[in-house]
Structure of Threonine ammonia-lyase:
Amino acid sequence: MTITLDDVRAAAARIAGHISATPAVPAPRLSELAGCTIHLKLENQHATGAFKERGAVNKLLSLSEAERQAGVIAMSAGNHAQAVARHAGLLGIRSTIVMPNFTPFTKVERTQSLGATVRLHGDTLSDAGAFANELAKQEGYVFVHPYDDPYIAAGQGTVALEFLEAVPALDTLVVPIGGGGLMAGIAVAAKALKPELRLVGVQCSFYPAMRQALAGKPIVCGGATIAEGIAVKAPGGLTLPIIRELVDEVVEVGEARLEEAVFRLATMQKTVAEGAGAAALAAVLDNPSLFAGRSVGVVVSGGNIDARILAQVMMRGLVYEGRIVRLRIGITDAPGALARVARLLGEAGANIVEVHHQRLFHNVPVKMAEVDVVLETRDQSHVRSLIAVLREGGFPTELMNEVS
């Protein structure tokens, strides 16, 4: 079984009126950074914050009256759960969502608030999926797969129809890949409409299942990733052959680059993306020679990032840019020494955030002390000038966080 451009067009007609087209916007600052012309497809603007609504609505609207009466079941710990719950509720279809036991309570509560019955089961997504399939057989529910379903993939493919209509000059599309539903749907539509278009899929380095399968290698996945939305251990049986045939290249990106992409989207484009949602931009930043001079469409697939994780990413980004630093400064353990350090820092334009005085550890001589100072600074060159000022003033100074 496969899907065609006609299936994607039928999906677009079916979901019209249920889902609004998302913006396709230029990103001039990101373009300058990456050395290519970037347009972003903001799938994080859907009501539930991710592209998953497209496939969910297409699948639900395809059901017969008997199937609607029976109800649907899905397995997910995130975006697919909310998409199915929301639109099943709007269509008057009973929905059950099976989530693994580790699912954060906020996600459980959000899914329930959208009208679904939530069942917690298992310690992994695989456990939850097996339980959902068993319940579907027992209760007669229709199982709504997160990616390995022709209606789901065709629904996700409507992203390409909108993107190419809005920005017909695109010569490259970059799309995150987990199980492959989004990439497969986009590939079918995009290659049919514009065969010369270059398609690049992106996986996180901890979960390169699709890339390994395409290469005929054993699938080895695992690890804690910020891109949990594409942390899939098995590619779809429907999606794998489509991606093998139509996608030009699949690349991997590491955690540092994923974090940077989330940070860049927030600070340069003023849009919030989850780790998986930022994966396509991460690939562009990670492979400048692959995209140099091209007109690149980047799919920002979702924006449902935990506020605590986002805060950490933003602070780490400031550290990376040299805008927050920690200096270890040696001073004499005598009155006025710390005041002289503070005066030098203030005159040099640094803002002191925290000060930690250390006399007992770090092998400090008894008549000396060390002060760890956290500072707000302008950039990395400012940091270097601060260190020079302190050393010239007689205070040995060491940078405690790495900035390149």
In short: The mean pLDDT is 93. The chain is about 45% helix and 20% strand. Residues 72-140 form a domain with the Rossmann fold fold (CATH 3.40.50.1100).
